[in-house]
Design brief:
By secondary structure, this protein is mainly alpha-helical. It has one domain. The chain is built from nine helices and two strands. Strands 1-2 form a two-stranded antiparallel sheet. Strand 1 and strand 2 form a beta hairpin. Helix 4 runs parallel beside helix 8 and helix 6 packs antiparallel against helix 7. The longest helix has 28 residues. The termini are far apart. 38% of the residues are buried.
Length: 242
């Protein structure tokens, strides 16, 4: 991808988050709950808007999306197991990929809203930082060393070397966070598993739909859904652990 396209995307992303951050800061001064709800609503509209450009979104998919959000809010303790079951079902059956993706997006965004609502900002940002570290290390280590494929029928480019590299990066970040910022819950050590499953679920959906990526807005970055899959999967576990 051309560097000029990446630069344009980076500037666009910075402008969006800058303006959006100022708006939320202003709203947050008046009502924190309103800021959280607007964040969740805005993120939901954004991912569904992107998804509808690669597949038809019916009322059923929207209902499934809302149901996923409700599960994260009202049954947060069980949501990680429900997510893993949904992921396994999609991989085995390869049916209803858009519905499964909508359910996953609802679960993840619902979990994110719930974590913010409980004002556990440290856990929220810990997951964000770890997801970025894991994805980045997995990409570079996997590209450098190659080796055995993780799931060739789902995502041919992902390797076990990449997974181990990402896991090592996660452990380094987690250890530093635990010592310097906040004591972490033992269940957070399972986050790399959720990062991998979130990424593979998205890859399985793309394979079922016959598309390369969800690229609509941030084209040189693969699209919004490609950027947030690991983070959303991690939020499901973080929310359940609270």
């Amino acid at each position: 991808m051309k560097s000029s396209e990446r630069l344009k995307d980076a500037i666009f992303i910075a402008l969006i988050f800058g303006v959006f951050g100022l708006i939320l800061a202003l709203i947050g001064m008046l009502n924190y709950l309103a800021a959280v709800l607007i964040t969740g609503l805005g993120a939901s509209c954004l991912v569904l808007w992107e998804l509808k450009h690669v597949s038809k979104i019916s009322l059923f998919e929207i209902t499934v999306f809302l149901f996923g959000g409700a599960v994260s809010v009202f049954f947060s303790v069980f949501s990680p197991f429900i997510f893993l079951f949904a992921f396994s079902t999609l991989v085995v059956s390869k049916k209803f990929p858009v519905s499964f993706l909508c359910f996953f997006l609802g679960l993840g965004l619902g979990a994110g809203v719930e974590v913010l609502y409980k004002k556990d900002l440290l856990s929220f940002f810990f997951n964000l930082v770890c997801a970025i570290a894991f994805d980045s290390a997995a990409f570079y280590v996997g590209s450098a060393f190659g080796g055995y494929k993780l799931a060739p029928s789902i995502s041919p480019n992902k390797t076990w070397a990449g997974v181990f590299g990402g896991a090592l990066a996660f452990l380094i970040v987690a250890l530093g966070w635990h010592i310097l910022i906040e004591k972490l819950k033992i269940s957070f050590l399972c986050l790399p598993v959720f990062y991998v499953c979130g990424d593979l679920l998205k890859s399985q959906v793309k394979r079922c739909l016959g598309i390369k990526d969800f690229s609509l807005i941030f084209k040189s970055h693969g699209g919004i859904i490609d950027r947030v899959d690991s983070n959303l999967a991690g939020l499901i576990l973080v929310n359940a652990a609270m």
